[in-house]
Amino acid sequence: MAMKNEWAEKDYYADLGVSSSASEQEIKKAYRKLARENHPDSHPGDAAAEERFKKVAEAYDVVGDPEKRREYDEMKRALASGGFRGFGKKAGSGYAGGFQEGFDLGDIFGQRGGFAQEDNLGDIFGSFFNRGGGATRKPNRSARGSDVQTEITLDFREAAKGTAMPIQLTAQAPCETCHGSGSSSGKVSVCSHCNGSGFISEQKGAFGMSSPCAYCGGTGEEIADPCSDCQGSGTKTRTRTITVRIPAGVTDGQKVRLAGQGEAGRNGRPAGDLYVTVHVKADPLFQRNGDNLEITVPVSFPEAALGDTISVPTLDSPVRVKIPAGTPNGRTLRVRGRGIQRKGAKAGDLLVTVEVKVPKEMDAAQTSALRAYAQAERDAGFNPRKDWR
Fold first, then answer.
1. Does the global pTM surpass 0.85?
2. Is the N end or the C end of the chain the one with fewer CB atoms within 10 Å?
3. Which long-range contacts (CB under 8 A, 24 or more apart) does 323-331 make?
4. Which residues are annotated as a binding site for Zn(2+)?
C-alpha cells in the first residue's frame, strides 16, 4: 500500500478508469480487466505494461478497501477545499494560522511525524492539534517484520515446467526460547510511560504535540522480564531452510513472493514477506517467445524437397512433425499446445524452423547422382535465381 503522504499526489480513481462515486463492484470489475490486460506474464519484458500493472494494483489496494477508500476520500476532499492551505501565513502579520509557509504534508502523513501507515486520519489530526473530541489513538501493534529479497538460478526447463527447491535464508526469526514474545514468562504488560496509548504528548506553544513513546516504540506494551536469549526483542538471527515453489512459466527476472517468510516481527508481530528473484539459464535447443517455444531443426535437402516426417524434441516427449514437400529453408511450422503451460492460461505453441543442411563432402556415387539431378533440373527449366534481383 502506498504511504498516505503519497495519496495526496495520486488519483486512484483515474488510474482505474472509474469515477469517485463508482460502486465496489464497478471498481473490482475495472481492476480485474486492467490487471488482466497488463499482467507481466502476458507482456514479458514490457516495462511499461509492468508499470501500469503496479499502478492499477496500488490503486485497487486503496480504493478497493472500504476503510482505506474512506480515508483517501476524506483527504482528497480536504485538499480540494484548501483545508491544508488555509493554515498559511496571514498577509501583513507575523502570525501563522497553524503551519508555517513551506509546511510539508509528509510531516503529518510520513514517518517523520512518527505515524505508522495504519494510523487513522482523524487520529493524526486530533493528536497533532491536541484536539478532536473522542478520537482514540491506537498503538502501533501491527508493525511487521522487514521484507527480505534473495535470488535463485534455474535451468530453462525448470523455469518452464515449474519446480520446488530449498534455499537457505539468514534473517531475523522468532526466538525459540520465548517463542517470539520477548518475555521469559510469555507475558507483557501495559507500558507505564504512555499508559498503553503508544504516544507521549507534549505541549509546544499553542499546540499539543504527540510522538511515539520511546520506551515501548509505540506498541503500548512493555516487558517486565525480558528473555535473556533475545534481550526482549522476540527475534534472533537464524539460518533456516525454506522450500520455494516456482510456478510453471516463470520468466527471467520475475519475482516470486512468499507471504510471511521474511524477517520475523518484534515481540510476536507478523513476519515480512520473502521476494525471490528468478534468473533463468539459456537452453541449447529452445528459445522462449511469450508462452511459445522456438526451435531450429536441421533437415536434409531430400527431406525438404521430397517431404518427410521427422521427430522433434519438446519439453516432454518428442513429437512427429510433417515436413511438406518443397519446404524452403527457414520456413516455420507450428505445433499447437506444445509450448509453455502456465496455470490458468492456454498453453503456448512449439514453433519449428527448418534449416536445410547440405553435405560438406560427398563420395563419387553421391557426386554422380547429384550431377545427374542437376542436369535434369536444368532440362526441366528450373532456375533458382529466376525472380532474384
1. no
2. C
3. 323/299, 323/354, 327/299, 327/354, 328/304, 328/354, 328/356, 329/304, 329/354, 329/355, 329/356, 330/354, 330/355
4. 175, 178, 191, 194, 213, 216, 227, 230
